[in-house]
Amino acid sequence: MAALTEGLDTVQVCLSKGLGAPMGSLLCGSAPAMTEARRLRKMLGGGVRQGGVAGAAGLVALDYLPRLTEDHAKTQRLAEGLRGFGVAAPVPETNILLVPVPAVAAALAALEAAGVCALPVGSAVRFIPHRDLALADIEEALRRIEPLAHLLRTA
Fold first, then answer.
1. 3-state SS string over the chain?
2. CB 110 within 8 A of CB 147
3. The dihedral of CA 35, 55, 21, 43: what is its sign?
4. C-alpha span between 40 and 27 (Å, rounded)
5. Among candidates 82, 119, 89, which has minimal Cα distance to 104?
6. Average pLDDT over the chain, rounded to whole?
7. Where are the domains of the chain?
8. What is the pTM of this model?
9. What CATH number has the domain spanning 68-151?
10. Phi/psi of residue 13, each to 5°?
11. Do 107 and 89 contact (CB within 8 A), yes or no?
């Protein structure tokens, strides 16, 4: 983290992206920057009542931080498996895999029928392996996707 944030005066971390919290972000910075951020938040109507539950979920999410590499490895495995089926899956850098497909609606319908969850993003299908999935779940998803791979091939 120190290397990623070197030279920055503020950093924002989303606790719901990959870390599993239902909501919430952290803003870190100098005391004057945080004072200004609080002022702007109040001015814009931002605030959370009964924030303890969300805060507790955020603490659990932060405990998961060292395990993010597991999610990235699961995503790498998914991408490798898809490429093995001739699908143009890019090499992912995080736990989000965007796969361009010729017909998003058809691909999503087939995946849903096979019990594989994905989301549309423009002309791509988005897969997000996360903390609640094991590597065995990725292998099972690949087994279910293989007969549908023709729907995911762009050429």
1. CHHHHCCCCEEEEECCCCCCCCCCEEEEECHHHHHHHHHHHHHCCCCCCCCHHHHHHHHHHHHHHHHHHHHHHHHHHHHHHHHHCCCCCCCCCCCCEEEECCCHHHHHHHHHHCCCCCEEECCEEEECCCCCCCHHHHHHHHHHHHHHHHHCCCC
2. no
3. negative
4. 13
5. 119
6. 90
7. 2-66, 68-151
8. 0.77
9. 3.90.1150.10
10. -125, 125
11. no
Distance (Å, rounded) from C-alpha 37 to C-alpha 58? 19
Residues in the chain: 155
Mean pLDDT of the 74-98 span: 96
pLDDT band at 19 (very low <50, low <70, confident <90, very high): confident
Q: What tokens were used for 96?
A: 């989000």
Residue 121 φ/ψ, nearest 5 degrees: -140, 100
Is 90 exceeded by the pLDDT of residue 82?
A: yes
Instruction: Write the pLDDT tens digit of every residue in 26-79.
Output: 889 999 999 999 898 888 877 766 677 778 888 888 888 888 899 999 999 999
Contact assessment for residue 74 and residue 135, using Cβ atoms and an 8 Å cutoff: yes
Calpha distance 68→5 (Å, rounded):
18
148 token code pair: 């549908």
What would the mean pLDDT of 110-128 be, rounded to a whole number?
Answer: 97
